[in-house]
Design a protein that fits this description.
Elements (H helix, E strand, L loop, with lengths): L4 E7 L13 E2 L2 E2 H10 L5 E6 L2 H9 L3 E4 L7 H12 L6 E4 L9 H13 L5 E7 L3 H5 L5 E4 L5 E5 L7 H5 L11 E10 H7 L6 H6 L3 H6 L4 E5 L11 H14 L1
Parallel strand pairs: 1-4, 1-6, 4-5, 7-11
Antiparallel strand pairs: 2-3, 6-10, 7-10, 8-9, 8-10
EC number: 2.7.7.38
Pathway: Nucleotide-sugar biosynthesis; CMP-3-deoxy-D-manno-octulosonate biosynthesis; CMP-3-deoxy-D-manno-octulosonate from 3-deoxy-D-manno-octulosonate and CTP: step 1/1
Protein name: 3-deoxy-manno-octulosonate cytidylyltransferase
């Protein structure tokens, strides 16, 4: 059965590296609008931009997208999405996909895939995505989050460290063998609204704080995270000035 789902795009105005990032122009439109356009192509029944900044609400409305104001003191995008879910009064079984506002190139098929994965795995509270790692630099890069899965394809753990750890190869300072089956985590999530209501009540976990990975809170408290495997990495989000210039160049070539 085809999944029915909603997309919420958390768009916090403050950014240390790119001030006002959601409203930065990409091909004649604000970045957050580009992300919303991709989300609207995913088959989502509803797309909402959630923000703490009135000009972002105005930009959304100007381009025909629904937006809502949320509190400015949220610690994470998940908390902001949980507020939206409560505002909207969504039923427990509603599937809500978190699409970041700095992902103007996110493939609509990836959004749909994560929502479908959660729909097809009723034992999971969350679904996310990963793709295979094929190079040593990515395996060892702490800015690239790795994941290890169980037999059912659910997450066992996420880490910035190289996992699974190829003991014999690394003990001899050798490259990781291809059979290590390393997976890179893609930062997109689908949640059930019932979990979003619970998330804010869960105490932060020590492993979450050590790794700086909020999804570890759910694992620590016993919630299952299903993982959809995609063969290739999606385009990168916009975190730096160089990322912004690249995104602008890509949209320029599409005109």
């Amino acid at each position: 059965m085809k999944a029915i789902f909603k997309v919420v795009i958390p768009a916090r105005f403050a950014s240390t590296r790119l001030p006002g990032k959601p409203l930065l122009d990409i091909g004649g439109k604000p970045m957050v609008i580009r992300a919303a356009e991709q989300a609207s192509l995913s088959g989502a029944g509803q797309v909402i931009i959630a923000t703490d900044h009135q000009p972002i609400v105005s930009a959304a409305q100007e381009h025909g997208f629904q937006a809502c104001m949320t509190r400015a003191d949220h610690n994470s995008g998940t908390d902001r999405i949980a507020e939206v879910s409560a505002q909207q009064g969504w039923a427990d079984d509603t599937i809500v996909v978190n699409v970041q506002g700095d992902e103007p190139l996110i493939p609509p098929a990836l959004i749909r895939s994560v929502a479908q994965h959660l729909h097809d795995h009723p034992d999971c509270a969350i679904a996310t995505a990963c793709h295979p790692i094929h190079d040593e630099a990515s395996m060892r890069n702490p800015n690239i989050v790795k994941a290890v899965l169980d037999k059912q394809g659910n997450a066992l753990y996420f880490s910035r460290a190289p996992i699974p750890w190829p003991r014999d190869a690394y003990a001899g300072n050798l490259p990781s063998p291809q059979h290590a089956h390393a997976l890179r985590h893609i930062g997109i999530y689908a949640y059930r609204a019932s979990f979003l209501r619970i998330y804010g009540q869960l105490a932060p976990a020590q492993i979450e704080q050590i790794e700086s990975l909020e999804q570890l809170r759910a694992l620590y408290h016993g919630y299952r995270i299903g993982v959809a495997i995609t063969p290739e990495a999606p385009p990168s989000g916009v975190d730096t000035e160089a990322d912004l210039l690249l995104a602008r160049k890509i949209f320029e070539t599409r005109r």
